[in-house]
Amino acid sequence: MLRLYSTLHRGMVDLETREPGKVGMYYCGATVQGEPHIGHAFSGVVFDMIGRYLQWRGHEVTMVRNVTDIDDKIIARANEAGRPIPEHVAAMEELFDEMYSTLGVLPPDVEPHATDHVDDMREMIFGLVATGHAYESEGDVYFSVRSDADYGKLSGRNLDDMRAGARVEVSGLKKDPLDFALWKAAKPGEPSWDSTWGRGRPGWHIECSAM
Question: What does the alpha-carbon distance between residue 38 and residue 33 come to, in Å, rounded to a whole number?
Answer without folding.
Answer: 15
